[in-house]
Design brief:
The complex is a heterodimer of chains A (416) and B (376). Chain A is of the alpha/beta class and 416 residues long. Chain A is built from eleven helices and 18 strands. Classes of the chains: A alpha/beta (416), B alpha/beta (376).
């Protein structure tokens, strides 16, 4: 019996394992999507399985075959039917049928849950209620009914409800299937291409990015966490989180010289800092940042081992994801996690390439390419950040986020 | 900049348009720029610009920088240059056409040992490039020319070691005729000069324009097998990906030939037997990529990363290189690279004007041979 996010984990009662041992036929995946439209997350994943993608100097075609789709919504700009028709991939009316290919037993070797984008309600805290947990539970039901489980990938955070997040991870452990989740930020290019060795004596992380709360904040948490988790002792869990805006935010930042210098280190890696009108560059200053980003949000995270993470959303000031960390010897490491967003910078969202490749590896090996605990914790951070804002920027104690884990030796980011 | 004393930088400009190389570089030298994880403060106390009267007229341009950034104006070139500690020359546009008169004036008027950096082309012909390089050597003026492509990052972040055992190379770029070729040369030379033995000079240049480019590929006139590894690094394939975001194997599906609107291929035979190819493929992809086949059959490929507009942070990398050059007096790369650039560009233009398919320069003496600087 262990603990997971403060919740007790039951000993496995139904250990199904991953028995996708069918070497003579290509392994298959099902993708469960909320909607498929140009530049929706599901489009990026589906097309990479159907068309391949650039990888390590060649056009890579996954050895996994996309065998079925379940699509929750079909807006006017739907592309699911076009893709399904052109590639002869069936769209099933239910998740169970997609996973069983219309039969009675699980008939695929991996499942992708891509529940990002689509028309879904928001709760009173402004969180969009994407059906990730529902998709996951219906998947688990098929696993249980079939007495066989296969690897699952969940795009972005697990849920907007902490108990559901825990339940999802517990299910994966109970049924012993590989569970991979999260953002593309931990695995995309880094500029410069830096790696923190395991057990780095790191004392503080800062991430600076853009986007909305309950959306891109998650990418920001993952940006910082994929570096922070490599510190000496590994991840200890999170004690508290406080979100701040306005004067309170900047007063907090201005009072912390260590934090201030790390913010500037992170910003030095940005390729998108807003310059004063008529200039091509501007020296970063907090007065200018405040002017450009009046709704700036900072998330101040205390980890249980004393480590600190601070995450900023600076809309209007930059449009990329940057990281800086300080080691105990004072050395600062920094980089940009590259997220060249189409259509302004590229035509493809190729940061999905390494994410899809890690999914392939997870399904082919039956072992998650990186720990699900990272995404469990970042999901919890995201929820706590929303809660703090909803509670008037109050500090939220997070005893439930006692998620401990060790990062793998290989951090799996894109470097070749 | 590691300069122990802050001195006078003179900048000679032909224009100062928004988001031009001139604005990117002048702003960085005036205000500073991010470099290696920190903000790099300006390396010069005194930055003086000499430009024609009309360049000063735009209220949001140089004139504003006089007020807000202490930029100095000097209308007489002799006054601007005679006590300069370093000179930056930025011609109009992307630097495809050199301002040879400005370069010559800088060489003639500045004090001995004044480093001179030219954005873009050093000259518009090999003859003039040699003349200017010879004059600079005679006057003891360290001279370098180039664009941000010379210092661009790569995705993946691969370095090319000195004396790399290369077999052949392909770069894929875009641009209108002239500009695309110039970008191709500036992308290619920093890569291939690092092959075993260094740059040996060129023997022949072949031109394949239009549909013939694809026909001659079948007979091996250029390394079509390097097209796929090169374009696999692109984030900007055109065609269907623009319409609906799909990924696509442009090469495998035979789409490059259909998408490229005015394909131009330049195959360069070097004197050591090495072969390099520049393709300008507008309409197929919208970023620069390369692939190099090594003698053991392995292939190195990468995107030549150009950070997004409007910031175009590649100019911060170039500013850092220029400031190091001004500080040390050691050119970041041999001036021979600029001679070869001028030579190739003029050969390309002449071949196109004449409608020729090949030009033989094996008799050129001396060959433009050189060794690259040890560090990229």
């Amino acid at each position: 019996m262990g603990t997971l996010g403060g919740a007790a984990i039951a000993a496995p009662s139904l250990c199904l394992g991953q028995t996708a041992d069918r070497p003579s036929t290509p392994r298959t995946v099902a993708i469960l999507a909320t909607k498929v439209a140009k530049y929706s997350h599901a489009q990026h994943f589906i097309d990479r399985f159907l068309e391949g993608y650039g990888w390590q100097g060649e056009h890579h075609r996954p050895s996994l075959k996309l065998a079925s789709l379940y699509v929750d919504q079909f807006p006017e700009n739907d592309l699911a039917r076009e893709r399904a028709s052109r590639h002869q991939v069936p769209i099933f009316p239910s998740i169970a049928e997609a996973l069983t290919l219309g039969g009675s037993k699980l008939a695929v070797d991996g499942v992708l849950i891509i529940a990002e984008h689509g028309d879904y309600p928001e709760n009173e805290k402004g969180q969009k209620l994407y059906p990730r947990h529902r998709f996951f539970k219906e998947t688990v039901k098929v696993f249980e009914d079939s007495r066989r489980a296969v690897p699952v990938f969940n795009d972005k955070h697990l849920s907007t409800d902490w108990e559901e997040c825990v339940e999802m991870v517990e299910d994966s452990r109970r049924l012993t299937f590989a569970f991979l989740a999260g953002s593309s930020l931990p695995v995309t290019w880094r500029i410069p291409s830096i790696e923190l060795p395991l057990e780095t004596e790191l004392e503080q992380s800062v991430g600076v990015c853009y986007g909305g709360v309950d959306s891109y904040d998650f990418h920001g948490y993952e940006t910082a966490q994929c570096m922070s988790e490599r510190r000496a002792g590994g991840e200890s869990g999170v004690r508290s989180l406080q979100a701040l805006r306005g004067d309170a935010l900047w007063a907090r930042v201005e009072s912390d010289d260590s934090l201030k210098s790390l913010v500037f280190s992170a910003l030095s890696r940005s390729h998108s800092l807003k310059a004063p009108k008529g200039y091509s560059i501007g020296r970063p200053s907090f007065s200018w940042i405040r002017e450009c980003s009046p709704d700036a949000t900072g998330f101040f995270i205390e980890h249980l081992d004393g480590f600190r993470t601070t995450q900023f959303l600076l809309n209007g000031y930059l449009r990329d994801f940057t990281y800086a960390g300080r080691k105990k010897n004072g050395e600062v490491v920094s980089c940009q996690m590259q997220l060249p967003m189409p259509p302004s910078n590229t035509t493809l969202a190729d940061f999905f390439n390494p994410l899809v490749n890690n999914i392939e590896r997870t399904i082919l090996t039956g072992k998650a390419a990186y720990p699900i605990e990272r995404t469990l914790l970042t999901s919890g951070m995201s929820i706590a950040g929303v809660d703090s804002l909803h509670a008037g920027q109050r500090k939220i104690e997070t005893p439930h986020l006692d998620v401990t884990y060790k990062a793998r030796e290989q951090s799996t980011y894109w470097r070749a | 900049m590691a300069a122990s004393t802050k001195k006078k930088l003179t900048v000679l400009l032909d224009s100062f348009e928004s988001r031009s190389p001139a604005q990117h570089l002048v702003d960085r030298l005036l205000i500073g720029y991010p470099s290696a994880g920190a903000w790099q403060d300006p390396g010069f106390d005194n930055i003086t610009v000499h430009a024609a009267e009309e360049v000063w007229k735009e209220e949001t341009g140089l004139k504003r920088r006089q007020v807000e950034c202490n930029l100095n104006r000097e209308d007489k070139p002799t006054n601007a240059l005679q006590d300069a500690d370093a000179v930056l020359i930025v011609p109009g546009g992307a630097g495809v056409t050199a301002n040879e008169a400005a370069i010559e004036a800088a060489i003639e008027i500045t004090p001995d040992n004044t480093p001179i950096f030219v954005h873009g082309a050093l000259a518009n012909s090999l003859q003039d490039a040699r003349r200017l390089a010879g004059l600079a050597a005679k006057r003891s003026k360290p001279l370098a020319a180039g664009t941000s492509l010379s210092v661009a990052g790569r995705l993946p972040d691969i370095g090319i070691p000195l004396n790399a055992p290369m077999k052949e190379a392909l770069v894929v770029v875009q641009g209108s005729f002239g500009a695309g070729e110039f970008a191709g040369i500036n992308s290619l030379l920093p890569l291939v000069e690092r092959r075993a033995g260094g740059e040996s000079g060129i023997k022949r240049v072949y031109r394949y324009h239009g549909a013939i480019l694809w026909g001659v590929a079948r007979s091996g006139r250029w390394p079509r097998h390097l097209l796929s590894p090169s374009l696999s690094r692109s984030d900007s394939p055109q065609g269907d990906p623009v319409k609906d975001g799909r990924t696509q194997d442009l090469v495998g599906l035979g789409l490059v030939e259909k998408l490229a609107s005015d394909p131009r291929g330049w195959v360069i035979e070097h004197r050591d037997g090495f072969r390099s190819t520049i393709l300008t493929l507008d309409g197929a992809v919208a970023d620069f990529n390369f692939a190099i086949e090594m003698k053991d059959g392995s292939v190195l490929s990468a995107q030549i990363y150009q950070p997004p507009k409007p910031n175009e942070e590649n100019y911060s990398r170039l500013a850092a290189v220029i400031e190091r050059f001004f500080s040390s007096g050691r050119p970041p790369w041999p001036v021979e690279r600029s001679l070869l650039t001028a030579h190739l560009q003029s050969l390309f233009l002449n071949l196109s004007l004449l409608g020729g398919s090949v030009t033989d320069v094996s008799a050129l003496k001396p060959a433009i041979a050189y060794r690259p600087t040890p560090t990229e």
